[in-house]
Amino acid sequence: SGCQISDFRLRVTSKDTGSKRSHDRPRTTNTLHAAITFSTEEYAQRIMGELFGFGVIKGFDVGTELCQTLFDFDRGARLIQYDAGDAAIEVFIDPDRPTPRGRFDHLCFEVDEMDAFLDRAASMGLEVRRFFTGTKDVVFLCDEDANLYEIKPKT
Questions:
Q1: Each residue's pLDDT tens digit, 16-61
Q2: Terminal Cα distance for the chain, rounded
Q3: What is the DSSP letter of 49?
């Protein structure tokens, strides 16, 4: 089995102000959570808890049947929910997870004191990646499980 992608069209038009958009369908109103995978609970806590400062909401086991049906996985998983402000981060624990490279998925966080935060991340062993676009610095972190995080200064 594989994922099937449905064809849909989203029309975005600029109004005179350039800041308004109209859509052919209702807009999603809130992001409730995003999910990410770590190899161990300890490493998840180190990144989500110690680095980003997110508290644990709850942790529970997700059964094999649910994982097979929704994620095309042949085993269950441990799930830990972290409070990330207006949304949650769901962390799946998979000791056998491959560490994929060359992908676009990432989480983006706004931080206070950007330089101090990046120093702390580097001291914890995360790779700091920077790219200057000509007008701004784009900064990503990569952890040892190959998860990517875009980091922006709080404005």
A1: 444 445 556 666 677 889 999 999 999 999 999 999 999 999 999 9
A2: 44
A3: I
